[in-house]
Design brief:
Blueprint lengths: L12 E5 L4 H14 L2 E8 L7 H9 L7 E5 L1 H14 L16 H15 L3 E3 L8 H12 L4 E3 L1 H4 L5 H10 L15 E4 L4 E4 L29 E8 L2 E5 L2 E2 L2 H14 L4 E7 L5 E7 L1 H17 L2 H20 L5 H13 L5 E8 L2 E8 L7 H4 L12 H9 L1 H14 L1
Parallel strand pairs: 1-2, 1-4, 2-3, 4-5
Antiparallel strand pairs: 6-7, 7-12, 8-9, 8-13, 9-10, 11-12, 13-14
Helix pairs in contact: 3-8, 4-5, 8-9, 10-11
Length: 415
C-alpha cells in the first residue's frame, strides 16, 4: 500500500532504515507523530567507516525501546553475497560506475523485511528522496521479498517545504542538531566498504572541477608515491581469495585493497550518469579497492575464459549492470544472468601480479593451473606442427565468401 494513502492508525509498527543522522532522526519522530506507530530502527554496518554506537544512543534518546533497536555488522555478507557476485560479471554502469551505492540497497532492504517479520511489523520506511534512484532500489527489494508490506517514503509525502522547516521540526521535538547541520551541507555523501559517492550542491555544475574536500577515500594521484606498489591477488572461481599469498575473507580482502588503492590515488571518477528516474546527475565516486579488483579479475579471466564465454559475458554485462543500478537485484532476470556468470567462473582461478602507481592499476603478469594460453600455439618460432599456417588460407576464404558475393554484386551494378 503506498504511503500517500496511509493515515493515522493504519500503521502499527514500522522498521526504519536508520543511520542516526539528522535526516533519519527527523523521519523517526515524524513517523511517530504522523502515524502514532511504534518505530523499530535498523542500522547496517556496511563498512561506511563511522562509529555506529551513536545511532543506538540517538534512537534511545528519541524514545525507541532497546529491543526495537537493531544494529548489524553486514560487511562480510555484503562483500561475499553482493559485491563479489557483481564483480564476477565485471559490472560497470554506463561503462564507468562500479555500482557502489546500488549494490548496497538490496541487502539493506532484505534485512528490513527480515526484521519486520521477526518483530511483527506491518511497514518499512527509508530516507531516500523522491528524485533519486535509492527510493526505487529500496522499494523494489521490499516488494520482491514481501508483496504485502506497507512502505513509507517520507520525502515524497511530508509537508516540509525546505531545510529550515525540517530544522524547526527537529528543534520542536528536541532532536539534537550538530552545528554543521544548521546550514545545508556542501554536498551529500554515501559510503560503504566498496565506495564513497558525493553528489549535489557544489557538484551540481558538471563544468566545474570538484573541490579537493569532496574526496573521502583516496589521496590525489599527483600526491601518490613516486615508487609503484607491487601486489599479487589470488582467485578461485572468480573471487579474490588471497593477497600476496595470504588468504583473506571477502571483507578483509576489500578492506586491504581499499588501503592500497587509497595510498596510490586509485579509484577516482567524476561522472554524469543517467538516473533511472529520468534525470542526469553529476557525482564524484571513489572505489579504490574495487578498481584494483576489476583490473585483476579481467586479467585472470583473459587466460582462463574461452573466447566465446568471455565475449558473451561482455555482451550481457551492460544489461546486468543496468539491472543492479535500477534496483532489480531480486528480479528473475538478474538471477538468471547471475547463474550464467557464475557458471563462467568455474575455472577462473590463479594469480595476477599488478603495480599500483599514481592512480593506475598496471597488470604485469597472470598465471593459472587452468590457463588456456598456449605458448606453443602463439610462438613465432617453430611450433612443432601444433598449428599449420596454411590452414588459415581456407579459413579466410570461407569467412570472406559473403563479402566476395557482395563485392561481385556491387561491381555488376556499377557497370
Amino acid at each position: 500500500m503506498p504511503q500517500g494513502d496511509l493515515k493515522k492508525g493504519d500503521i502499527k509498527k514500522v522498521v526504519l532504515a536508520y543511520s542516526g543522522g539528522l535526516d533519519t532522526s527527523i523521519i523517526l519522530k515524524w513517523l511517530q507523530t504522523t502515524y502514532g506507530c511504534e518505530v523499530v530502527t535498523f542500522t547496517a554496518d556496511l563498512g561506511q567507516g563511522e562509529e555506529l554506537s551513536p545511532a543506538r544512543e540517538k534512537a534511545l534518546l528519541l524514545g525507541i525501546k532497546p529491543e526495537n533497536i537493531f544494529i548489524e555488522d553486514l560487511r562480510e555478507e555484503f562483500v561475499r553475497d553482493y559485491v563479489f557476485p557483481m564483480f564476477r560479471a565485471n559490472a560497470l554502469y554506463e561503462g564507468t560506475y562500479l555500482l557502489g551505492t546500488s549494490i548496497a540497497r538490496p541487502l539493506i532492504g532484505k534485512k528490513q523485511i527480515e526484521i519486520a517479520h521477526k518483530v511483527g511489523a506491518d511497514a518499512v520506511a527509508h530516507g531516500a528522496t523522491g528524485k533519486g534512484n535509492d527510493q526505487v532500489r529500496f522499494e523494489l527489494a521490499y516488494y520482491a521479498l514481501d508483496p504485502s508490506i506497507k512502505i513509507i517514503a517520507p520525502w515524497r509525502h511530508w509537508a516540509f517545504k525546505g531545510r529550515e522547516e525540517l530544522l524547526n521540526f527537529a528543534r520542536e521535538h528536541q532532536i539534537p542538531i550538530a552545528k554543521d547541520k544548521e546550514g545545508e551541507a556542501p554536498f551529500s555523501v554515501d559510503a560503504n566498504l566498496l565506495h564513497s559517492s558525493s553528489e549535489g550542491k557544489v557538484l551540481e555544475d558538471p563544468a566545474k572541477e570538484a573541490p579537493s574536500i569532496v574526496y573521502q577515500r583516496t589521496i590525489s594521484p599527483m600526491e601518490a608515491p613516486d615508487k609503484p606498489t607491487e601486489v599479487r591477488i589470488g582467485f578461485e572461481r572468480g573471487d579474490a581469495m588471497s593477497l600476496d599469498g595470504k588468504p583473506l575473507s571477502p571483507a578483509a580482502m576489500l578492506t586491504a585493497l581499499n588501503a592500497l588503492g587509497k595510498a596510490n590515488g586509485i579509484g577516482r571518477i567524476d561522472l554524469v550518469e543517467n538516473r533511472f528516474v529520468g534525470m542526469k546527475s553529476r557525482g564524484v565516486y571513489e572505489t579504490p579497492g574495487g578498481t584494483i579488483l576489476l583490473a585483476a579479475h579481467r586479467a585472470i579471466e583473459s587466460i582462463t575464459l574461452d573466447r566465446g564465454a568471455a565475449h558473451l559475458k561482455d555482451e550481457i554485462m551492460p544489461r546486468y549492470a543496468e539491472l543492479i543500478y535500477n534496483g532489480f537485484w531480486f528480479a528473475p532476470e538478474r538471477e538468471m544472468l547471475q547463474a550464467l556468470i557464475d557458471k563462467s567462473q568455474e575455472h577462473v582461478e590463479g594469480e595476477v601480479r599488478l603495480k599500483l602507481y599514481k592512480g593506475n592499476v598496471i597488470v604485469t603478469g597472470r598465471e593459472s593451473p587452468k590457463s588456456l594460453y598456449s605458448s606453443t600455439l602463439v610462438t613465432f618460432e617453430d611450433d612443432k606442427g601444433a598449428y599449420d599456417q596454411k590452414d588459415a588460407e581456407g579459413f579466410i576464404r570461407l569467412n570472406a565468401l559473403r563479402l566476395r558475393t557482395l563485392g561481385q554484386r556491387r561491381k555488376t551494378l556499377e557497370r
